[in-house]
Amino acid sequence: MVGPVKVLVTGGAGYIGSVVSAQLLAEGSQVVVLDDLSTGHRDAVPSGAGFREVSLLDPPVLAEVLAEGFDGVLHFAAKSLVGESMERPELYYRNNVVGSLNLLDAMRAAEVQRLVFSSTAATYGEPTAVPIREDAPPCPTNAYGATKLAIDAMISFECGAHRLTAASLRYFNVAGARGEQGERHGTETHLIPIVLQVALGAREAVQIYGTDYPTPDGTAVRDYIHVDDLAVAHLLALDAPAPSGPTGEHRIYNLGNGTGYSVREVIEVCREVTGHPIPAVDVGRRAGDPGVLVASSERITSSLGWHPERGLTDMVRDAWTFARSRAAMAGSAAHPA
Ligand code: UDP
Fold first, then answer.
1. Among 57, 70, 302, 311, which is most buried by a count of CB atoms within 10 Å?
2. How far is the CA of 284 from the centre of ligand 1 (A)?
3. pLDDT tens digits for 196-205?
4. Bridge partners of residue 10, in order along the sequence
């Protein structure tokens, strides 16, 4: 697809979906966000985007929305908490797998033939080799990753049987913000937002989950990608030429920053950016956390020319600006002038 297009963004009221929507608008595309607001925020939808409060579990309304006519769909809407997925797998299978099946049905009926799906590197499970390549055996260790893998398989068969051309992007930890679009979770479990809560004075200290991993400083190493770099990858995947022929194609790309950062490195960068001492307490490992999770981006670099441009300092700086502005907004709401 070249030039301005009309794109449906499911989950566009969430963290990554809202950033991708903002980037699409900035490059002149028309955007309609579809979100049930179960975890997203109405005010995260960038101005200029259309908005439909619709659930993927409502096929008749979904069909109506798709019938408006779109050049492509970016699919982010999903339940995405690993712990919750183990406690309520049925919620994840219904929302993620059934919801995606409904989306594919509506797209097929409306002849929308481009899809970019926000998959996850959690589809691979415990890695046998790092960095993780796309040919690594998928073996998810939680229901969240299993639902995303099931959707990837569904998309592959759909592309083989019909004219859909799709890309699934698999990545680990997303960080940073794009202006007013950033990470806003009800219960925060992610490292960078938690560390920034300490710097804001909302928490006493950060707990370091495990210091006995086989890594240079003993803490776990993760692959962090700036949300803006991630959004660029989605738009490149959407723009890639479709194959000629009677059926489509499903391309799978891993996204990573190449080396990864340890928990201690992340905290140290947060100290430098915020100027706050950020006390840290060493505690035991969190159940189910592998030592090193880093993805290889070789395939998407050679196929689409994507490479991450922003490092950890950029991610922390942007997340910090966003966190402070949200805290200031909350403060002025609590104490109106
Ligand atoms: N982590 C930590 N303290 C926290 C939150 C996370 O030490 O309060 C560690 C966690 O064990 C993992 C890394 O930071 O090694 C990133 O965790 P996060 O939950 O942000 O993302 P995950 O890699 O689990 O998707």
1. 70
2. 12
3. 999 999 999 9
4. 34, 75
- CA torsion angle 111 114 118 121 (round to 10): 120
What residue's CA is closest to ligand 1, atom 19?
190
Atom of ligand 1 nearest to the CA of 194: 8
**pLDDT tens-place string over residues 10-62:** 999 999 999 999 999 999 999 999 999 999 999 999 999 999 999 999 999 99
Topology classification of domain 191-222+258-334: UDP-galactose 4-epimerase; domain 1 (3.90.25)
144 counts as catalytic: yes
- Domain regions of the chain by residue span: 6-173+226-254, 191-222+258-334
- Residue 286 CA, closest ligand 1 atom number: 11
CB-ligand 1 contact for 278 (6 Å cutoff): no
Fold of 6-173+226-254: Rossmann fold (3.40.50)
Q: Which residue, chain included where needed, has tokens 């194959």?
A: 243
